[in-house]
Amino acid sequence: MPDSNPSQNAVSPVTSGFLDRLAGILNPGQILSSKAQREAYAWDNTGIRAIPDCVVLAQSSTEVAKVLRLCNEMAVPVIPRGAGTGNVGGALAAYGGVVLSTQRMNKIVEIANNDRLAVVEPGVINGDLQTALSGYGLFWPPDPSSSRSCTIGGNIAMCAAGPGAVRFGVTRDWVLGLQAVLADGTVINTGGRTSKGVVGYDLTRLLIGSEGTLAVVTQATLKLAPKPQARRLSRAVFSSVQDATKAVAKLMTVGSPPSAIEFLDGASLNLLRNESDLLIHEDGCAMLLLEVAGTAADVESQAQEVNSCIATFSPLEQTPPVGIEEAQEVWAARYELSPILKKLAPKRVNEDVVVPVSKLNLLIEGVEEIATEIDIPIINFGHAGNGNIHVNLLVDPDDPVIMAKVKPALGRIFKLVLQLGGSLSGEHGVGTQKRDYIEWEVGDDSLKLQRNIKGVFDPKGIMNPGKIFPNV
Amino acid sequence: MPDSNPSQNAVSPVTSGFLDRLAGILNPGQILSSKAQREAYAWDNTGIRAIPDCVVLAQSSTEVAKVLRLCNEMAVPVIPRGAGTGNVGGALAAYGGVVLSTQRMNKIVEIANNDRLAVVEPGVINGDLQTALSGYGLFWPPDPSSSRSCTIGGNIAMCAAGPGAVRFGVTRDWVLGLQAVLADGTVINTGGRTSKGVVGYDLTRLLIGSEGTLAVVTQATLKLAPKPQARRLSRAVFSSVQDATKAVAKLMTVGSPPSAIEFLDGASLNLLRNESDLLIHEDGCAMLLLEVAGTAADVESQAQEVNSCIATFSPLEQTPPVGIEEAQEVWAARYELSPILKKLAPKRVNEDVVVPVSKLNLLIEGVEEIATEIDIPIINFGHAGNGNIHVNLLVDPDDPVIMAKVKPALGRIFKLVLQLGGSLSGEHGVGTQKRDYIEWEVGDDSLKLQRNIKGVFDPKGIMNPGKIFPNV
Lengths: 472, 472
Description:
The structure is a homodimer. Chain A contains 16 helices and 18 strands. The first copy, chain A, has a seven-stranded antiparallel β-sheet with strand order 15-12-14-13-17-18-16. A five-stranded antiparallel β-sheet of chain A has the order 5-6-10-8-9. In chain A, strand 17 (378-383) and strand 18 form a beta hairpin. Helix content of chain A is 33%, strand content 20%. Chain A folds into three domains: 16-103 and 453-457, Uridine Diphospho-n-acetylenolpyruvylglucosamine Reductase, domain 2; 108-226, Uridine Diphospho-n-acetylenolpyruvylglucosamine Reductase, domain 3 (2-Layer Sandwich); 233-429, 3-Layer(aba) Sandwich (Vanillyl-alcohol Oxidase, Chain A, domain 3), CATH 3.40.462. Chain A is of the alpha+beta class. Chains A and B meet through strand 9, helix 7, helix 8, helix 10 and helix 15 of A and strand 9, helix 7, helix 10, helix 15 and helix 16 of B.
């Protein structure tokens, strides 16, 4: 876990010769090189700071191609960056180089409502796109919690998701095609404007989730869905994680699966009992927050089906489904938890592991055991329908004594996740934060293959070096 | 379009030395080398015949690895083959070599209904899996028309789909992870058992649709969906393709999109008027066959919503929605069309192009123009909700005079498809049949990149040579 920029102690690849040539490609306002300017691009959601050697504000795919060609020629690392809302250091110049910001490439190029697609530049904010689409009765399903500030380019780079993934899937399911620039400046187009297409290899999906290590996405054709007209929300409290887990597994087999199944573990509920005014059943060890979405005509029957299903798993408490206007109250536990965590441990370690739904209770049990052993509070909550749990260790990562205990504990948690048939990340990605663990999950042979694929796209290794892959 | 096996005129790579070493790996019954035995693997759905030099019936991933290692060492081409139901020659030894059949690897390894997943070997028949799943109230959505005989391995190799894709998506949306063997015998695992996962590159999707040119899939973990409890079917006839197209575009924005929107053009309707007893409105130039699927509770309201939507686009005729027991009658046009085509032109040329939904009418108009010019009947029908149209040229591909006219006409159709923002194949793939055209769609730079990716997986080029990529 690098927490500073090692290149600041080494010779910077961004020489005055490089900056001179950059000035020949871009306007002066597009090149940020003062310390104050560069510091504005030194952060993301990890709390790590890494000041880039230079920041470039590209305005078109042609400019991106020119910048990459120059960087490739002069072996200067390039770190593509959207809004900096990532959780694994993916958009940080942790090893020096040029941050290539797409924030000025923020045009919604086209909304073709009859073809249920939109063409956007990578710097478009997720929430701005949703606003533009709502007039057409459409939406783009990926809904990370940062949707008001994160960019579509960032969503694509990390294959972002959110609570809605349980019903609608993740970013890879909602992109039809991409325009992307390779390290040597070559512009390619992948996929297209149709919802089917099997001509050649699936480069679209290969780029989605590749964290800026293969290419820079300069335009995306997004698949859209009809926006649900209505929602119904409810809540249930269980005496054991096992009951909640069984209910989740059963819910995933009903005719119309819920549009969100959020989970809070016993530690989360204890925290809410201590730090908020919420009344939660004293024997409650797990809470499910449920949402269904659909047409006004069918949302009522969906909600009833979900509630009937829940009732068969002996909940201690269960609310009737309510409309979106009462959501704040029914889902209060989820809304109040994050601010409490931020107050108690502003720089807490948050790992977004994922296990098969039927193994959720074993994951929580195992994590509780580790928490007790190392005497550090661990709070687990997340997107239960996907088995995607945010494991929050309430520690200060800047405290070396604590972190000496945390690192081996994390290793044990990751091993448990893999034993249960899970994955180390459901939606945050690898970046710098999990690269030391990736081999545990994918294995040596696959990792070698992936390195070789990167070599095809980026022979000189200038694209976001130090991300995804461990040092060799 | 190769229609014989060129290697039969050249020196076969399958030497007696190779066969001797193969006999050291497998039991005698797993190696088929007599002409009669090899002829049984010489066909697919294209009508082309290509007799392999040898057929291997592998029984495990270990055996697949041993065979590939040997073939790689001795530079013997390997053609992976499922049930031979493909439409583009993908499973044919068109350039000689060993056909590696997965038909004996037909175990359903696991059905984990609580995790909505199944683990299968590649030789499992799609329909057999559906039968096994139906007891759990689950299904695997990919539904190619060959589902009663095609294999899951073949579905994965070609990224198969069918009418249900309009609602449920295609094979790439329903695979969680793969076990696959690379050309050198290395076994890798991709993805996993969870519905989310963003650790490393998306090798799962890279392998899906790669037509056996990168690796042999030896096990697949499939994502399952709740099986719809009920269906409602209806039919509408329009006086113009444009009206039908507009109705399709609108239908794709309703709350619950139909589970099938099948289209028949004016030429299809004329054929049915002449060759069947069906009564079709005399002014009808386009027919839509519609299906909705869901719970018993919501299927009625879905069907009403679809029918109300259709009614606003001035259909000449419109049936009320009926249950599955009356489907045969309501959808008779679709069921009767294929046998008529088979009778009139048993080896007809069938191209499964795809265009954005809003461009369907321009595609049909353009194809009609070409049909008139070359004086060859062309019948268009298919999966309208995806814009995926089967363009059927009623010709005998063995007639060189006719084919001299057909080949340039196909080129014109493909150019039209690409001008309209479409793709040359929605579900059949490239194989040998469209490899001369792939560059038109993906471009020179992407094709070069794809060749280099293949080089990473298969440096010696033994995996299904001559498929997807044009000769250089």
